[in-house]
Amino acid sequence: MYFTQTDGKNDRLFVMMLNDKSVYEMLPTGNFTGLGYYQPAVSDNKLAWVGFTADGYRINQANKKDLKWIAAGEIMHATCPIWVSQH
Questions:
Q1: Distance of alpha carbon 56 from the chain centroid
Q2: Rounded to whole angstroms, how far apart are CA atoms 69 and 27?
Q3: Which of 23, 21, 57 shows the shortest CA–CA distance to 39?
Q4: Please, which residues have CB within 8 angstroms of residue 36's CB and are 6 or more apart in sequence?
Q5: pLDDT: which is higher, 33 or 81
Q6: What pLDDT is stored for residue 43 in this prediction?
Q7: CA separation (Å) from 27 to 54, 81, 82, 87?
Q8: Measuring CA to CA, which residue among 4, 1, 27, 28 is closest to residue 80?
Q9: Is residue 21 scored above 60 in pLDDT?
Q10: Residues 6+ apart with CB under 8 A from 86
């Protein structure tokens, strides 16, 4: 499941693996324009998202293999409203 979460002034892109509920922040590498990561669209090899610019919306895309995945599990426990606790 892909989603955007606000952290202060930054809107960041995350993915939650539904099989084990592990969460990763997805950081695109390269020179992408716009603020934020919204409306993620996913295919087998690519990820696209919308960012805001002074001229309007900008659609960005990256190869999944070029994304940096950062484990965010402990951060998500405290900040993510959709986090599902395991009892």
A1: 20
A2: 6
A3: 57
A4: 4, 10, 11, 50, 51, 52
A5: 33
A6: 92
A7: 22, 21, 21, 31
A8: 4
A9: yes
A10: 21
Candidates 27, 21, 18, 17; CA nearest to 66 is 27
Does residue 51 contact residue 32 with C-beta atoms inside 8 Å? yes
Residue 8 structure tokens: 């202060």
Whole-number Å distance between alpha carbons of 50 and 54: 13
Give Cβ neighbours of residue 52 (< 8 Å, ≥ 6 apart): 34, 35, 36, 38, 58
DSSP sequence for 33-85: -SEEEEEEEE-SSEEEEEEEETTEEEEEEEEGGGSEEEE-HHHHHHH-TT---
The pTM assigned to this predicted structure is 0.71
pLDDT tens track for 22-58:
899 888 777 776 788 888 899 999 999 898 888 898 9
